[in-house]
Amino acid sequence: MEDPFQHQNSQANLSRSQHSTLRAKKFWWLLAGIFVIILSAALIYRSTADQSEILSLVPIDSVFYLQANGPAWPWSKVEIADLPFANFYGQLETIFSWPAGSFQKNILAFSSQVTLAAVPNQNSGQLDFVLIIKSKNDSVVSVLNQSPHHLLLKKNLTAVTTSEEAIKKLLEVQQGQTFSLAGNVNSKKFGRQLLIGYFNLSNVKSYLAPENLAEEIFTQFLTGELYLNFNQSAGGWQFSLVREKTFISSSAKSKTSIKYLPADFFEFSSGLNLSELFSIWSQVDPELNKTFSQTAAAVTALYNFNLADEFSDLLSQPVDLILLPAQTPNVFGLDFILSLPSDNKTLNQLERLINIILAQKKPTAVDRLLPDGSQVTELIAEPDSFVWQTKDLAGQVVRYLSEPSLNFAAAYVVSNNRVVLATSIERLEQFLSTSEIVVSDLVDRCGFDLAGNLIFLNPQNFTWPVRDYLPPGVILIKPLESSGLSGCVIEN
């Protein structure tokens, strides 16, 4: 007969064995978890230390600093050579006299860290490039050592520059004779990213030479310091820009009215504050500022009303603005398309504001007879002398005004409760019929929404040399509630 107590003892022993095995598994899982944490911390610490190492070797007066870092995780498939700056690589190849395509394929691909800084050259008044490469590859080191201006900073760390003065600056930092950029940079604003950057925007601004109104306005935002974090995410390129001061006010609840963009656009902003835009414009164009001041004074004297109060409703509207290359020469140096909310008051204010400004720019000559019998010619601003005309455009009523002597033209149409104003009838017609670039598709690919301030840049249509330093494709930027920006690169 089977002993029931023996059966119970067997079950107890089995239960204790199972618990022991379970405890052993938990113990090993705990050890594995601790190992992963230690390994992760070690990798992060090493990568952070690597970032700071080169920062401490660059002169304190560097205008900008860009650093590409090899992946922190061994299993990462994204390398430095994958960064989407082919145009910029071509510029570096020209500067350092390297064969076309060689920088990305033969240097970046075999480097664990690459840093580019721009430092002022006191002799030339221009900027010198300082390129610092961390690589154990003999062929990379050999190429760098062939440069007329090169310096071994540390083991596996070589610098090449565009002048001997820049080499002297590196030596001064290395020998402790001058401060490094590390003292100016808040490295806590850098994440562990494939690319990080620091820009002293005020100093960058002094080396730029804007060629048109849009570029002049752009430079007004270049103040203070800017930090860049750039990495690959979900198969695309994402970045963030951190700055102490906001770039421009936006109407956070407004949703862009623009559904399509012409292929030749170079900048599009939605949810802009029109009053702030005019303020910035007047800062870069003294003549415009003078005209506004004269216009306001003249209007007060002649019509007994305050110009700013009269047009406050118009200027407070959230607007969408598209900038494009000028199809024909005009007073602005570029074409634009402006979209803003429509009502009868807005239309009257818009036409009247344009007429008043034109009247100040082109006053009417009136001959007057003085009491002593002499005659004088007086210049009088007469807004009513400029007459808006009407034209049918594909079933839509277009209002337009042209003044060839001032190289000025404007045309607008009311569509879907919006006023769409352009610098010419031709531009307006092109915009109304375009379906080349779908705005919502670009926004969706970045994971953003259509509300608030959005900024689209299309570098391939820039006339400014800055296009050579930007990635190809459309760059979408969205201001954050803080003072930073979030963005992505939408490759073609």
UniProtKB/TrEMBL annotation:
Transmembrane segments annotated in the record for this chain: 27-45
UniProt entry keywords in alphabetical sequence: Membrane, Transmembrane, Transmembrane helix
Top-level taxon of origin: Bacteria
Protein name (database record): DUF3352 domain-containing protein
Organism: Candidatus Buchananbacteria bacterium RIFCSPHIGHO2_01_FULL_44_11
Lineage: Bacteria, Candidatus Buchananiibacteriota
